[in-house]
Write a structure and sequence with these properties.
It is found in: Plastid, Chloroplast. It comes from Gossypium klotzschianum. The chain is mainly beta. It has three domains: about 10-150, no CATH class; about 190-325, Probable inorganic polyphosphate/atp-NAD kinase, domain 1 (Rossmann fold, 3-Layer(aba) Sandwich), CATH 3.40.50; about 330-470, Probable inorganic polyphosphate/atp-NAD kinase, domain 2 (Tumour Suppressor Smad4), CATH 2.60.200.30. The chain contains eight helices and 35 strands. β32 and β33 form a beta hairpin. It is globular, with a radius of gyration of 37 Å.
């Protein structure tokens, strides 16, 4: 029998009649080839021919019906010959102990002999170095099949389909490994000292005292340019000594990120959502001070604003820089009958919601992922949230709370008309489309971060994907410590009485 060297695999079956393992009989089909003097044994992997020797047949016949302690065994000492690319090898079976401790079972040993054909004399030896073509581990099955599997594996490499390089994954000796976790703590380092800060606060006269204090500190002590929104600038203009405060035009904020080095927010989570709405593209780093009612995203206290702002401005002077969290945003675009609606592109930080509004009927929403229909929502609506928004509307609707560094989207139904419709988490590479079908009983409504609410008629859809521009927020401690602190402070996460000791 001849073998291909590229496969480096040898399969052998001994010519035995019956084998008993644990009292169950198995048999092999044996054919006698009288012309060639060979015995052929059929297996699932082909036919193997071995030389039919008289002494071997005697040993097999004597061992076929041998019984001991009510169990039959088959044992033999069989030499099997094989050929690998013109060279001849032999494999010898040896007696080994069976399952119940006796020594009448047999298995083929990992011993090969190469038969030299130079002068007609057969000289045998056992050398692993000489048997490269059939090198490998031996294994014997209940039917006597012995396989020699090569240690050489097929080489492989990885190709990303998202257009990015494989910086995290590596292939070493045909094995896959990660060089680092998928997400890590990010640090902010300035190439040059920042010069301009955008100061955001709640609209109206609230928090003007705090805004004046922060603006004076940034301008007089840190020598920075201070920008505010036009409505707030009108208030500063009436206060003596604050002529240094500048403003911008809110009609066009497309180039605002080119003028602002970082953003300082005074208020609650709504101010951060407002900052995300101001920057349609890239967003500067945001440091927020908790002066609102809840403040899940505002990890800094106003009492420490001097120290924290200095840390942000002069972060390069520290050994570790400034810790930040890159908060994923969603890019949402409205389509009408398959065509994009001009000016209807939104970047959301928390969630996009499609619901039935004030209609008395259940909403019917077709959900596609990469143009493939995955489900139909029948209920009050559906939420597609970011990890940052997972602790907002999505959690109230039964969704999971997700760390902001996990790259994913949350797909959470709102009061679905199905007991099996559970929230799911999708990778950040997902491309969703929420479409109102033509047979829907009524129209639907869509909102982005709770604002810019508008109607979706039949045939309209909203396409959702990961935005290229995240919102970087400055951490008080680190991204994980700040997140758990907010869970406990704002949501009383796992707050309970401790069990008493025994």
């Amino acid at each position: 029998m001849h073998f291909n060297r590229q496969l480096k695999r040898l399969e052998i079956q001994p010519v035995s009649g019956e084998i008993s393992i644990g009292g169950t009989w198995g048999s092999e089909v044996v054919h006698a080839n009288t012309k060639s003097g060979l015995v052929e044994t059929e297996s699932s992997n082909g036919v193997f021919s071995a030389k039919n020797q008289a002494q071997e047949n005697k040993n097999l016949a004597a061992a076929n019906e041998k019984r001991m302690n009510g169990t039959s065994y088959a044992s033999s000492s069989l030499n099997v010959n094989g050929f690998v690319e013109g060279e001849r090898y032999s494999m010898t079976e040896t007696k080994v102990a069976t399952l119940d401790g006796s020594s009448d079972g047999h298995v083929t040993s990992n011993s090969f002999s190469k038969i030299q054909k130079s002068n007609g004399n057969a000289s045998s030896y056992s050398s692993d170095d000489e048997l490269v073509s059939i090198e490998g581990n031996m294994c014997a099955s209940a039917t006597g099949v012995v396989r020699v599997q090569s240690r050489k594996k097929a080489e492989m490499f990885l190709v990303r389909t998202d257009g990015f390089s494989c910086a995290r994954e590596k292939v070493t000796e045909s094995s896959l490994a990660f060089t680092h976790p998928s997400t890590q703590q990010q640090m902010l380092m300035w190439k040059s000292t920042p010069k301009t800060v955008l100061l955001l606060k709640k609209l109206g006269p609230e928090l003007m005292k705090e805004a004046k204090e922060v603006a004076s500190f940034l301008y007089y002590q840190e020598k920075m340019n201070v920008l505010v929104e036009p409505e707030v600038h009108d208030i500063f203009a009436r206060i003596p000594g604050f002529g240094f405060v500048q403003t911008f035009y809110t009609q066009d904020t497309s180039d605002l990120h080119e003028r602002v080095d970082f953003v300082a927010c005074l208020g609650g989570d709504g101010v951060i959502l407002h900052a995300s709405n101001l920057f349609r593209g890239a967003v500067p780093p945001v440091v927020s001070f908790n002066l609102g009612s809840l403040g899940f995203l505002t990890s800094h206290t106003f009492e420490d604003y001097r120290q924290d702002l200095k840390q942000v401005i002069h972060g390069n002077n520290t050994a570790e820089g400034v810790y930040i969290t890159l908060r994923m945003r969603l890019r949402c675009e409205i389509f009408r009958n398959g065509k994009a609606v001009p000016g209807k592109i939104f970047d959301v930080l928390n969630e996009v919601v499609v619901d039935r509004g004030s209609n008395p009927y259940l909403s019917k929403i077709e959900c596609y992922e990469h143009d493939r229909l995955i489900t139909k929502v029948q209920g009050d609506g559906v939420i597609v949230a970011t990890p940052t928004g997972s602790t907002a509307y999505s959690t109230a609707a039964g969704g999971s709370m997700v760390h902001p560094n996990v790259p994913c989207m949350l797909f959470t139904p709102i009061c679905p008309h199905s007991l099996s419709f559970r929230p799911v988490i999708l990778p950040d590479s997902a491309r969703l489309e929420l479409k109102i079908p033509d047979d829907a009983r009524s129209n639907a409504w869509v909102s982005f971060d709770g604002k810019r609410r508008q109607q979706l008629s039949r045939g309209h859809s909203v396409r959702i994907s990961m935005s290229q521009h995240p919102l970087p927020t400055v951490n008080k401690c680190d991204q994980t410590g700040d997140w758990f602190h907010s869970l406990i402070r704002c949501l009383n996460w796992n707050e309970r009485m401790d069990q008493k000791a025994l």
